[in-house]
């Protein structure tokens, strides 16, 4: 919608220019000439008012794209060691070691390796978080680590994780965990996975398999190498300059600091002091903290940060966009709230209709 004129927006939405200009006035914008380009915020707002789900697609045209770290989610059957593996990986981070550990619970952490490469892990293992984020359009995860216990083998939630990853078109790297156990049988796990349709590398496919033990902390380097290799094949790049496009990974209310959101920037750079709209909330970024609680001036792609200064509590999966002024932030937040409320009421009324149909 960037730079669209009222007349173009009318064509796109199927509404008359008069209607759109009325909306502009209603939301407190002056009725621009129909050939004047609208700012992306105003265009989104107008589109929402006529019931269109405006999705911002930032143009990367001309922007320099630089390699960025992969964002990884850990999935697998209950008790196969997802939490243990994340804990073990967290401890391999150079920065975390230097800082004496990661002090804050962010919902995400970075493993930075001595080679200079880094990997961002979402610290909320499980299918629910992954699905919730995806359902809200937040395509944050680049790679799924599928954890399978070497003794238990493939179980129901292993298969679920596989189908989630497949549906989201996210590649899998398999971590066969608990390889320290006497009953461990990694070869059996591989055969099971292959028979479920996973194209393992050692059988001519492209899915890497790594044998690890989260408890004994073995194979972690290999897992990290495998993830970096996978990321390299995906050629993950992001625009660094320009307005940030980010997602909320986790949000919580702090008694002293108010609503806090853990965010991962997808593109651009999030800068302290900027006005943002997050889902239907808004705020002005008062502080940005990295995973060890250190204040940062800005956040770059794939870097998990905690942001402070929001007026309300956002939800995991909410998008974060940067707007130019407090006025715009309030306007867009109010517009989104109206839209969400409308959608909610519509869903309720549709629900009632469905109930009535059922009773017939
Ligand atoms: P989650 O449910 O997938 O998060 O699994 P947890 O990380 O909570 O682990 C479940 C149990 O398996 C715990 O008792 C862990 O100590 C144990 N466990 C996890 N990883 C390993 C491992 O590599 N080796 C052994 N022997 N036990 C493990
Ligand atoms: Mg767990």
Automatic annotation (TrEMBL):
Belongs to the TRAFAC class translation factor GTPase superfamily. Classic translation factor GTPase family. IF-2 subfamily. It is found in: Mitochondrion. One of the essential components for the initiation of protein synthesis. Protects formylmethionyl-tRNA from spontaneous hydrolysis and promotes its binding to the 30S ribosomal subunits. Also involved in the hydrolysis of GTP during the formation of the 70S ribosomal complex. Residues 67-237 form the Tr-type G domain. Signal peptide: none annotated. The lineage of its organism: Eukaryota, Viridiplantae, Streptophyta, Embryophyta, Tracheophyta. It comes from Tripterygium wilfordii. This is Translation initiation factor IF-2, mitochondrial.
């Amino acid at each position: 919608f960037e730079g669209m004129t009222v007349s173009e927006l009318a064509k796109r939405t199927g509404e008359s220019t008069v209607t759109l200009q009325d909306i502009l006035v209603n939301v407190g914008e002056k009725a621009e000439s129909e050939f004047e380009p609208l700012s992306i915020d105003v265009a989104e707002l107008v589109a929402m008012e006529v019931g269109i789900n405006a999705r911002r697609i930032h143009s990367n045209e001309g922007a320099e794209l630089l390699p960025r770290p992969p964002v990884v989610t850990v999935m697998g059957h209950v008790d196969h060691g997802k939490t243990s593996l994340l804990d073990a990986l967290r401890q391999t981070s150079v920065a975390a070691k230097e800082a004496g550990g990661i002090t804050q619970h962010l919902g995400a952490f970075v493993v930075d390796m001595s080679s200079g490469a880094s990997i961002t892990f979402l610290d909320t293992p499980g299918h629910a978080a992954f699905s919730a984020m995806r359902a809200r359009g937040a395509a944050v995860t680049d790679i799924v680590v599928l954890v399978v216990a070497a003794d238990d083998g493939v179980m129901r939630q292993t298969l679920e994780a596989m189908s989630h990853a497949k549906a989201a078109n996210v590649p899998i790297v398999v971590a066969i965990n608990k390889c320290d156990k006497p009953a461990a049988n990694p070869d059996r796990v591989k055969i099971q996975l292959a028979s479920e349709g996973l194209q393992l590398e050692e059988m001519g496919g492209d899915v890497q398999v790594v044998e690890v033990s989260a408890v004994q902390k073995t194979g972690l380097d290999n897992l990290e190498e495998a993830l970096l290799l996978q990321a390299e094949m995906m050629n993950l790049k992001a625009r660094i300059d320009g307005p940030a496009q980010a997602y909320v990974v986790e949000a919580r209310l702090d008694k002293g600091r108010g609503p806090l959101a853990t965010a991962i920037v997808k593109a651009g750079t999030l800068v302290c002091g900027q006005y943002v709209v997050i889902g239907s909330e808004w705020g002005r970024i008062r502080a940005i903290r990295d995973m060890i609680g250190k204040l940062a001036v800005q956040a770059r792609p794939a870097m998990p940060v905690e942001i402070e200064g929001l007026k309300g509590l956002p939800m995991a999966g909410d998008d974060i966009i940067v707007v130019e002024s407090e006025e715009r932030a309030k306007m867009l937040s109010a517009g989104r709230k109206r839209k969400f409320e409308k959608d909610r009421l519509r869903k309720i009324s549709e629900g009632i209709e469905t109930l009535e149909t059922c009773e017939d």
